[in-house]
Amino acid sequence: MTNKPPFDSWEKMADEMVQFFISTETQTHAINKLTKLKQGNRLLEDFWSEFVTWKELSGYNEVTLVGLFKKGIHPALARKLVEIGQLRNLYLLDEWYEKALSFERSRRDAIEEFGGRKTMESLGDVRKKPVLDVPRRDPNAIDVDRCREMRR
Prior knowledge:
The protein is an all-alpha fold. It has helices spanning 10-21, 24-36, 44-58, 62-72, 75-84, 93-114, 144-151. It is built from seven helices and no strands.
């Protein structure tokens, strides 16, 4: 007589235990936290630490978590990842994190070496500089002052 183990793997047992012991209130709270979580001006590592805490309790799959990660990180960083991230698998959360971390560290190193803005906008968030509001001259108008100077 052979005894078959109740679970095929450690991961399956852990998943079953999480589903059994985590209440729906805890899961709902984690989902709310994840959907509202933003990096802001924090380091990516700090954002990731909080993200991982809530992702474990949310019950979300990898694809959904990647979407929430992209929405939660700074928009300039997310844009850079999408534009030039060269991700091998668009649905692996760890790959998104590693690439984002690489970009953010490169930005910090560049600021340290060359100076520059320390905000996330320097990551590639191109914003137009404010234009001074200089009144423009009407090309058809007569410049009275200039005409007076010419007569003298």
